[in-house]
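Q: Hi! Curious about what ADP-ribosyl cyclase/cyclic ADP-ribose hydrolase looks like structurally. Here's the sequence.
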Amino acid sequence: MASNTIIQCSPSTHTKRKYDVFVSFRGEDSHNNSTGFLFEALQKKGIDAFRDDAGLNKGESIAPKLLQAIEGSRLFVVVFSKNYASSTWCLRELAHICNCIEISPRHVLPIFYDVGPSKVRKQSGSYEKPLPNTKKDLVRIKRRWRNCKD
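A: Let's find out. The predicted structure is below.
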């Protein structure tokens, strides 16, 4: 699978829920502190949250298990942080989340970590910078992200 393509949410998987929550976050911004506490709190409450400990290296495709976890989740938590929008992988996760919501409506809970909601909404500050090496698919991802957040 090419790393610059948008993956469609599989309609056949939307009825099989494996996780209560999928958390989308930029690891370098929040993984070792706030999201760690979030995962711990969810676990203490008996909420099954998918945790991608392996992460992705630059240039790698989104792992199929990550896409399946998104498709198999009841709720999405998106941790918008200072560098979230500069991550191709975060935007691809978000695009896949938006795609899955279109097929099978679910809720998204946004968390704003070290970035104001208006920066995300108005796409200013670190959210206005163009993606490096923007390709046609990345433009579509960004457009889908804009539509999803509205």
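A: A fun detail: The longest strand covers residues 73-81.
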